[in-house]
Amino acid sequence: MTYVEPPYTDPARLSAALKDDGYAVLRPADVCALAGCSEADLAALSASWDNLELDNYLKDGGRYRRRRHSCFIQDGAGLAQAPHRAHWQPVEYNALHGGMHRLFEPVEPATVAQAGWQRLLLSLGDVCASVAGARRWYVEAHQFRIDTLEGIGRPTPEGAHRDGVDFVAVLLVGRRHIKGGETRLFQAEGPNGKRFTMLEPWTLLLLDDARVIHESTPIQPDGANGHRDTLVLTWRAAGFQGEHLS
To answer: Is pTM, for the whole model, over 0.90?
Structure first.
């Protein structure tokens, strides 16, 4: 199967690309350089995707998605884990699952404690601050595994969407024995779009959520135990969604 290569960004233009185009895509080596960690540091995180819990909230009745979810607050160089809370989005941003308080199992403490996790979140938060100005960021982290054990798996069952945050990062952790899973981007207010497929583990897509709508196409099995693993991170200055700041 032929795939379209991602439109990789010169890492020196990362902030400029977000400001000019609303998105940027980094190669795994550039993600390591940005985070100040090694490929081994990121690879060490991957094993935790084998221990995700079934998502029981899918309205299409599917059993193809496993996940964990935790929240953090980044204030300058500090990153603190917030008390565990339900994930909530308004229906304006998620027509399928919006309005639901979905309480998932948290990211495992051993994962959060790893140097690769801490450096990755902090460095990407710094990029957000370089674009939008330094501020207190409310960060949500989602570990996803979409599998093909029962046939088709849908990374974004809600379709093309925005998340209702300031910035979104999608990192491919790995893909095994699947076909499909194409990333599609659309201008929120404009005619332009991009389509490509992330194949290398720890490829990064970083989005300005106000300007870019995104989705990933369904995956199909291409061998036994097919799955696609991603880490989705979001940054929001106005608090966690569903929470009103005083």
So the answer is: yes
Structure tokens at 34: 């940005």
Q: Are strands 212-216 and 53-54 parallel, antiparallel or unpaired?
A: unpaired
Number of domains forming the structure of the chain: 1
DSSP code at position 161: B
Range of the domain at 51: 11-236
In a domain, 241, yes or no: no
**Core vs surface per residue 183-219: b (16+ CB within 10 A) or e:** bebbeeeeeeebebbbeebbbbbbbbbebbbbbbebb
For 60-87, what is the mean pLDDT?
A: 94
Task: Give the helix ranges, DSSP H, for the chain.
Answer: 14-21, 28-35, 39-46, 109-112, 115-132
Over the stretch 2-43, which tens digit does the pLDDT of each residue have? 899 999 999 999 999 999 999 999 999 999 999 999 999 999
Helix (H, G, I), strand (E, B) or coil at 20: helix
- CATH value at residue 102: 2.60.120.620
- Look up residue 91 and give its DSSP letter: T
